[in-house]
Request: fold
Amino acid sequence: MPEITYREAVRDALAAAMRADENVFIMGEDIAEMGGSMGVTQGLLDEFGSERVRNTPISEMAIVGAGIGAAMAGMRPVVEIMYEDFLTLSLEQIVNQAAKHRYMSGGQLKVPLTIRTQGGAGWSPGAQHAQQLEAWLVHVPGLKVAFPSTPEDVRGMLWSAIYDDNPVIFFEHRLLYPVKGEVPEKIEPIPLGKARTLREGTDVTVIATGPMVHRSLEAATRAEGDGISVEVIDPRTLQPLDEAALVASVKKTNRVVVAHEAVERMGFGAEVAAVLQYKAFDWLDAPIERVGAKFAPLAFAPVMEQFVVPGPDQVYDAILRTLGK
Amino acid sequence: MPEITYREAVRDALAAAMRADENVFIMGEDIAEMGGSMGVTQGLLDEFGSERVRNTPISEMAIVGAGIGAAMAGMRPVVEIMYEDFLTLSLEQIVNQAAKHRYMSGGQLKVPLTIRTQGGAGWSPGAQHAQQLEAWLVHVPGLKVAFPSTPEDVRGMLWSAIYDDNPVIFFEHRLLYPVKGEVPEKIEPIPLGKARTLREGTDVTVIATGPMVHRSLEAATRAEGDGISVEVIDPRTLQPLDEAALVASVKKTNRVVVAHEAVERMGFGAEVAAVLQYKAFDWLDAPIERVGAKFAPLAFAPVMEQFVVPGPDQVYDAILRTLGK
Amino acid sequence: MEKRRTVNEEQLREFLREMLLIRRFEEKVEERFRAGELPGFLHVAIGQEGVAVGVCQAMEDGDIFASTHRAHGHTLARGSHPNNVMAELYGKIEGISHGYGGSMHLYDVERGNYGANAVIGGGLPAVVGAGLAFKMRDEPRVAVAFFGDGATNIGTFHESLNLAQLWKTKTIFVCENNHWAESTPGWQHSPVWDDMSKRALAYDMKSIKVNGQDVTAVYEAARQALEHARSGEGPVFLDVETKRFHGHYIGDPQVYRTKEDREDAAHHDPLDVARKGLGISDEDYDALDNEALEMVEAAVEFAKNGTDPQPEDALKNIYA
Amino acid sequence: MEKRRTVNEEQLREFLREMLLIRRFEEKVEERFRAGELPGFLHVAIGQEGVAVGVCQAMEDGDIFASTHRAHGHTLARGSHPNNVMAELYGKIEGISHGYGGSMHLYDVERGNYGANAVIGGGLPAVVGAGLAFKMRDEPRVAVAFFGDGATNIGTFHESLNLAQLWKTKTIFVCENNHWAESTPGWQHSPVWDDMSKRALAYDMKSIKVNGQDVTAVYEAARQALEHARSGEGPVFLDVETKRFHGHYIGDPQVYRTKEDREDAAHHDPLDVARKGLGISDEDYDALDNEALEMVEAAVEFAKNGTDPQPEDALKNIYA
Ligand SMILES: Cc1ncc(C[n+]2csc(CCOP(=O)(O)OP(=O)(O)O)c2C)c(N)n1
Ligand SMILES: Cc1ncc(C[n+]2csc(CCOP(=O)(O)OP(=O)(O)O)c2C)c(N)n1
Ligand SMILES: [Mg+2]
Ligand SMILES: [Mg+2]
Reply:
């Protein structure tokens, strides 16, 4: 199997989807000549031209909304919001419009729109360029929410998102773009709503998303050295959530750590913890541990940033705590 | 003690704060001549004039942002966002600006801004006029979040919010405005961050917010008939959260129901459940029950609306479930 | 060419018929709401029928539009049956949104109604996107956005017009300037309230000003705007001056509004203008009026006998 | 009267000194970033110094401003010490935001710097609010917003200018039109990219167009605008034409930009214009230049010897 980066995997999926269906087109700020601020869309302008690879003005509300309208009119737009922090400018369209048109119309319309965005700390971007806001979207009926962590997943899931007839908010992570991983020769769609077990284990289940998947695998390896067998699961899709897979793992290990880079308070881990304590109450031998960013905006100075953002150590420590060590 | 409505209590607090400090002023859509779409600000224009009771254009982003700027420049603005659904238009300013100016400036600035808003189902407003989005704000460091449920609380807490030196997102509920309750002769400030026990009990703790407080009290009375003693606690402030009070109650009753009108998935109840299963793990005799809106936008037809929105019955049933009944 | 023809008597008669239907429909809605039969809250566009009919009659099959919280007129004028519109207000399955939407969320995709929006400005970006799709697929279709003067203050409005002009999408923007945003008069909410065309200058967008109380004038202006957009020359801002006869919402006591302003509005009734323009006899007019009244009565009957959804239906139509 | 006086030699010399300091500061920042000493990502305003200095020199004590992601120039021009600005870029406690902000979040409240904003348009509403506070308290102060051409496309821009004009807040809007929004040229992002003054027409707002490469012209225009706002007559839109010499961010390969465009920009250097206008000798100029270079070197020294925050400091300053 070829090895490609997460960045290349996203690009692959976009290009393949655009080749397969001329109704697919992409728009966003600086995605054309520059190939996107993260270099994800490099080369697409040359292959598909400026009608299907559209540089937009700085108008997060209108470009998401235009995507909604184009989608309702039969296209399959993929909109890029440069940073998650700027989702705050388009939420009205995402939450009140994209998520609700089908419902409010009693099923007359569908909105096959994909909104790609990315964020993440770890490179001193400051407080307005690193927020992880996926939890907000999970609270909104009508949306699907994806957050893949590997090249294979991001490629297969983005394909599925683009061809899904519902609005999908597709989260990528800044630090994952250069990460390499093996992928099938040709794109194999990965259905939304299925979790993935990246590491089997028997003592503790770590449920992690995005960059925390890799940090958790690191922690798991370290724990192995202490004779602790850790299972690492990535839900991959946060909405709909593969509860069955998570519950099954917990019933096996009886201990859980939930890890994400977003602020712990009211983060996605809260929902996972609430679900698991409910559905696996009698199987839990220890409180569910949550690992997330400390309760603070992201400071610029690296020493402060590192203190706030969770890494392998925080996961490792949480694993030990679930075992009372 | 005099009895006044929740609506009058909000008005009282606004008027008193404006009399006490000329830096306090209010702005929002239709709050002047009309007195607000909920009639909350009726009469304030006459007493304080159009400079301090400002009708605004339909510009949710700019009026919140103008509040931020005025606050940083020494005023204590109170901004009204007519419906929570429209908070989606001002989140950039709330989340990236109001919540972070103090932090990003290393403590040079403060933002004594209060943003009042309201929402709620139960009157067939349709999908874009009834969302309960308080959970989103709880995820944002730098903000305080209040959601009072009684006239006394809303009056005393609004006063505290206005005089708090931090941005406070103050949630009111459409169906609570006509609700009456006793209040002290003169306003007694109620500190943010303190929960309130509305009913003492020994068998089950119901932690409820907003309208669910009243629906939970109804359920508790009904349960009493079955010989079940229910404690009802209203956190009142969601951020900072009075975890100690909630934990103490749970350690007494060993059973918990968390109830809010917002969609259950990723709602505030998830955070409460995550906190309690962690801090009171060994005291819990049953899974923490969550009661919230079903996972759907709000349909217009009353029969469908009632099916989605939680009432006393859902709380009552949850109480029984925690007791294995 | 066919499109350029000015309005003939037969057409104007049709316009009057439509306006009468909308007027009587909304008066009936007010009555039924006061009688406590209609859930939620509603907004009527009494006095603004000329805009709805003028624009919607100028549209062609395949064109689409987005409306606002004040949507009954646009919806009826575009051909949705009063029975189904009324049934929606009663929350019935037979409603055009099958009971999921309500007065502020009327949808009729078959007739190009992509939805009434209760968020001010909320419908505009989608209209730009639909107009973009029509342009990308080189279809002779236009997407129409209805909105009010108050909506020109929201950022969504700015981003939408800016993008539409930049990309020359097949879109027209119909601003119904009734000089009120709820209780807020134009002068209190917008620096250019008395000449909304100025908004278009910020985008170098073509704009056309027209008197909304004269349905013929609206029709002609809309024709022109639609042709411009359809031909790919770019979007058009239609600045329609009109009057809100009643309150913002049904039951609005209008404490904020002077008697003079209300009376002045009433003196600019699009029904009178059309009636005069047509020089139609009283008998003739009454006949049209009765026809409208009967349709409306029938609509109420139809709606009342409609089917309530099942509670569990609330969990359908969330995802495709 | 004092304010009306045109720029004298002494002032112009001061302007040149300031511009040189900013230019050398940012060149040094580029160098130190490439050397891997500076965390995060940075944007320099090389070529746009005339705007920063012209406007900031025209401001008075008590005036406040909000800047953008391209904030070094505005900050230095308003009098913040290069040592503290540089220390912020190194993430030190001595930094003007004490290490919490970084290049895109420079604050110096004492000097009226209410913060650089990394969200396009994000700083504008607060400037309107500050201008409102000044007006309500009848203070002779003005709030100034800096932003670029790309920012005129965001809804926040529209709502802010609309509200400022409606309420006649003591605010001025300084649009630095360098014809680029990252990699997107003006013609690709705005229908009125070559005449941004048109944006002001949508609000009936006074606008002044000026060549940003001529610091004297900018100063005069800013003076005029500030006086207008200060007197309570209303906000002003300052349409400043300028040039971005380098990439959008430090390290930007500018694959999207032609050699011609880069060269053309370099031919409009505000330093040259001021130097000629002043008719200053080479020795004299080099003296100023060396002075600037020394300050910048010293700033780097100061910054490197600064104190790193403690990790736990990350949990401070969240709430007042
Ligand atoms: C974003 C948003 N803010 C506020 C409201 C509440 N609201 C409903 S209608 C209205 C006034 C709209 O005025 P205009 O656009 O002129 O339309 P008109 O009511 O005159 O038809 C307001 C403020 C809303 N629906 N959406
Ligand atoms: C709301 C928002 N969208 C996108 C970005 C990413 N971004 C940073 S600078 C920039 C271009 C800004 O162009 P302009 O306003 O002309 O300022 P300039 O960079 O030319 O100084 C963009 C798109 C952002 N910071 N904020
Ligand atoms: Mg209006
Ligand atoms: Mg620019």
Remarks:
- Residues C 148-150, 178, 180-181 surround magnesium ion (ligand 3) (CB under 6 Å).
- Chain B touches chain A through 50 residues (CB under 8 Å).
- The longest helix of chain B spans residues 6-20.
